[in-house]
Specification:
Oligomer: single chain
Largest sheet: none
Mean pLDDT: 95
Radius of gyration: 16 Å
Length: 147
């Protein structure tokens, strides 16, 4: 999808997340213990290396700005924020016993969420954010984890 410069990184990450959703969904569908354990591992590594930073990026540079300056889109941000929370809760609470359903649910939400941000949220940002607000999205620096 052709995006403004400031949203290109996030947009590429959404494309990657669609591939990840497909991979996780396939592992859930296989359903055998090895596939489910691999799915848990893939999910946790994906969160540690990509997803959590991506979620923070959106929350700190997009959702906060929209809630402060574009209140007419508050419900969209609230809905997307709830989906962020849902994905985080699955990552934290998944067990081998719940893996098949949790992986399937995660993959479904990740896919729908990524498409909704691309098709609903990003067009709003491109049309309404100022250059300064867009540059804040571009120049995001994640918080370092406390290990």
């Amino acid at each position: 999808m052709d995006r403004c410069e400031q949203l290109q990184k996030l947009s590429r990450e959404h494309q990657d997340s669609l591939l990840m959703a497909e991979k996780i969904s396939t592992l859930a569908e296989q359903g055998n213990q090895n596939a489910l354990m691999e799915g848990i591992d893939v999910l946790k590594k994906y969160n540690e290396t990509e997803l959590e930073v991506h979620l923070q990026h959106e929350e700190r540079t997009i959702f906060m700005t929209m809630m402060q300056h574009y209140r007419e889109h508050a419900q969209l941000c609230i809905d997307l924020g709830k989906e962020h929370g849902f994905m985080r809760s699955i990552i934290e609470e998944i067990t081998p016993e719940t893996a098949r359903q949790d992986l399937a649910d995660f993959a479904d939400v990740l896919k729908k969420h990524s498409l909704r941000e691309e098709n609903e949220l990003f067009p709003i940002i491109e049309s309404e954010f100022s250059k300064e607000q867009l540059d804040e999205v571009l120049n995001f620096v994640p918080w370092l984890p406390l290990h």
